Amino acid sequence: MAISETTEKVAFIQSDAVAFGVIMAVLGLIFFTSSRKQGFWHSFYKHIPALLLCYFVPGLLNTLGFFDKGSADNIYYIASRYLLPASLFLLTLSIDFEKIIGLGWRAVAMFFAGTVGVIIGGPLAVLIFAMVAPEWVGITDGVVPKGEEIWAGLATVAGSWIGGGANQASMQVLYDVSDTLFGTMAVMDVLVAEIWMVILLFLIKKSDSVDRWLKADNSAIEELKVTVEKYTKENERIPNLNDFMMILGLGFAIVALGHLIGNWAPGVILASVEEGGTAYTVFKNVGFGSHFFWMIITATIAALILSRTKVREMDHAGSSKIGSVFIYVLVAAIGMKMDLTKIFEHYQVFFIGIVWMIIHVAILFIVAKLIRAPYFFVAVGSKANIGGAASAPVVASAFHPSLAPVGVLLAILGYAVGSVGAILTAIMMRAVVGG
Predict the structure, then answer these.
(1) Which end of the chain has less Cβ packing within 10 Å, N or C?
(2) What is the greatest pairwise CA distance in the chain?
(3) Which pLDDT tens digit goes with each residue over 320-370?
(4) What is the pLDDT of residues 190-246, one digit of tens each?
(5) 81: part of which helix (H) or strand (E)?
(6) 203 close to 85: Cβ distance less than 8 angstroms
(7) For residue 26, how far is the Cα from the chain centroid?
(8) Nearest by Cα to 188 from 44, 25, 386
(9) Helix ranges, 205-286 (H)
(10) Continuous H helices in 163-218
């Protein structure tokens, strides 16, 4: 065995249970300090949102070698596959659906502005580096081996940033991207998206100032917040054991239903059309072949239906607060997967990704300025693209728990346009490098 193998870094915490306990303790400490009404912590949290620390502190601990990768992956799987659908159900259950629809066309416009930002941002970033560092984008005198073309690898990032993991994987297969290049692009994808997530969360504390700069009309959002807060004050009661058991029982029953449909629906739907045909391709691109897609759709639809019934009264006992707890656990689990040292290992691709993201953000703010869309739509429209159903509701709920469903509804659009948008991006990037 080589010396390099025997000296490989070993995580300080090897146990999933201990790792989970640590991030829960971190969350508890953050909420304890953020609740201080005076002193240093009161001043600190005026400028730094608690949600950002829930994300960044586990990431810093992981970078310092506290968590084993297997533990981080396992905890993230539990959080994203069990707690996320439960939180979406519990948060969406309490919504005023008419008010959500009343948020209007600006929400959808900002989502598509984000999509356009990804589609044209990739080719523009490649064009910039083709002029200043052509070898970084695969422009060389020699022949680039099949599967190693930078434009093809970047197409997988476009799939991820517009749609999600399913679209990313489909781009790898479509363009025959090598596993090594795919892994490099996956690292860049996560790192750049996480840096933007940190900035987004930081700006939430400054959203009033951003809205004034955008000259935005956020009256519909404020009206929704007021409506929800008034409803909560008028109906909130002290929960008892029965309430908690019914909330958790129904929440995880819906999770089970989501997984059941997620296991069944993709096979049935794809089997109903000819494999390789137009309908098959469209269904795959939209996300009908994804277990995760059906899990999220099931939780959302179930909540929308039950929000019209007396089941909505569960929120009187705090169902949305439990949903928020699950969201914060998911945020910490996402943070556990962040490794800041990876920036230096793949710095060339990382710089391409940074420029790409800057273009995406610039287009978002230009469109927001033109249509006077509030920062809420900028943030959620971006994360509905870049982060999808896993992080769009996280960002939305950072503004107010009642707004989480907006993130879900916009993220669903991403599944529909992800692969088509990624293919357009790939065609343009390929044209830039002359592939």
Answers:
(1) N
(2) 72
(3) 889 889 988 988 887 888 777 766 666 788 899 999 999 999 999 999 999
(4) 788 888 888 888 888 888 889 889 888 777 777 777 776 676 677 778 889 999 999
(5) none
(6) no
(7) 21
(8) 386
(9) 207-214, 219-235, 241-271, 278-286
(10) 165-174, 179-204, 207-214
CA distance 230 to 248: 25
Count of helices and strands (H, E) across the chain: 22, 0
Query: Cα separations (Å) of 50 from 11, 273, 331, 375?
Result: 26, 48, 11, 19
Round to whole Å and give the CA distance between 272 and 282. Answer: 13
Q: Which two tokens stand for residue 28?
A: 């508890």
Which of 86, 114, 77 has the alpha carbon at shortest distance from 296? 86
CA distance 373 to 375: 7
Q: How far apart are CA 22 and CA 58, in angstroms?
A: 9
Which token pair is 66? 């506290």
83: left (phi over 0), alpha (psi -120 to 50) or beta: alpha
Report DSSP state, residue 341: T
Per-residue pLDDT tens for 32-65? Answer: 998 888 889 988 887 777 877 888 899 889 989 9
Decide if 403 contacts 384 (C-beta within 8 A): no
**Rounded CA gap, 223 and 352, in Å?**
41
Report helix, strand or coil for 67: strand
d(CA 126, CA 370): 27
Both tokens assigned to 4: 């390099």
Are the C-beta atoms of residues 117 and 360 closer than 8 Å to each other?
A: yes
Residues of the chain above pLDDT 90, percent: 23
Q: Residue 323 and residue 263: Cα distance in Å, rounded?
A: 24
CB 318 within 8 A of CB 312: no
Rounded Cα distance, 176 and 418, in Å: 18
pLDDT of residue 189: 82
Of the chain, the end-to-end C-alpha distance in Å amounts to 41
Distance between CA atoms of residues 207 and 403, nearest Å: 15
What would you report as the CA-atom Rg of the chain, rounded to the nearest whole angstrom? 22
What are the sequence ranges of the domains in the chain?
96-327+339-433
CA nearest to 219, candidates 369, 306, 48, 104: 104
The pLDDT of residue 103 is: 66
**258 — pLDDT class (breaks 50, 70, 90):** very high
